[in-house]
Amino acid sequence: MNRPFVVGIIVISLICLFHVIQAGEANGIPIMPQELIQLAEQYGLSQVDDFYINKPGGINPCYVYDFLPLNKPYMDFMSAVFWCKKTGPDGPIYCLFFAKRSIESGYLEKYDIIENAGYPRGLSLHMDSSVTLDRFVYFESNNRGPKGVHLVGYIVRSGYDGIATDFYYYEGDWFIREWH
After folding, report:
1. Is pLDDT at 38 greater than 80 in this prediction?
2. What is the mean pLDDT of the chain?
3. How far apart are CA 68 and CA 49, in angstroms?
4. Are 68 and 76 in contact (CB under 8 A)?
5. What is the pTM (predicted TM-score) of this model?
């Protein structure tokens, strides 16, 4: 076979693959670690296959490890948070899935799931002890958070293209803060 012909076939194949992925028809291609996909499936959830579709520019991944504070710095990947979805009659319901690793089994287990957490954007972790909870609202009721309570630990930020939502867990409740 001549070399230009082989190169042409490869280029055409890559262009076709790119268009299939852009069209969102490449369902089933893992976009996050297998352990997170399997954990979501245990609860009837699946990865957000089209997470990267039609989002030009840079975007953080749909998952992040170690949102819970660690007691020992050598213990990596002891917790994770990731976007997933369940299919409802009116379309997908997006969920933020929080997991922590069991010391006994070594596997990630469900810590919490927030349903209807908004449209999935790239996840990142932020820490700012000068921020107080009164700048957040309760996720369930939309009431302001308590005054004078400084954040300890990570804020989980879901953001893309100038829009972000911060999630913070405190004493059994989830708090959110919107950024525009």
Report:
1. yes
2. 83
3. 26
4. no
5. 0.79
Q: What whole-number distance in Å separates Cα of residue 91 and Cα of residue 70?
A: 37
Q: Which domain holds residue 19?
A: 1-30
* Backbone dihedral region for residue 14 (phi beyond 0: left; psi -120 to 50: alpha; all else: beta): alpha
Residue pair 160/121 in contact (Cβ under 8 Å)? The answer is yes
Claim to verify: residue 13 and residue 100 sit in the same structural domain = no
Neighbours of 9 (CB within 10 A): 11
Q: Which one-letter DSSP state was computed for residue 31?
A: -
DSSP one-letter string for 59-101:
---SEEE--SPPSSTT--S-EEEEEEEEEETTEEEEEEEEEEE
58 and 23 within one domain? no
DSSP state letter for 172: T
Is the domain of 129 the same as that of 169?
A: yes
**Is 122 in a helix, a strand, or coil?**
strand
Q: Residue 111, SS3? A: strand
Q: What is the C-alpha separation between 148 and 135, in angstroms, rounded? A: 10
User: What token pair was written down for 125?
Assistant: 């972790």
If asked whether residues 55 and 105 sit together in one domain, one would say yes
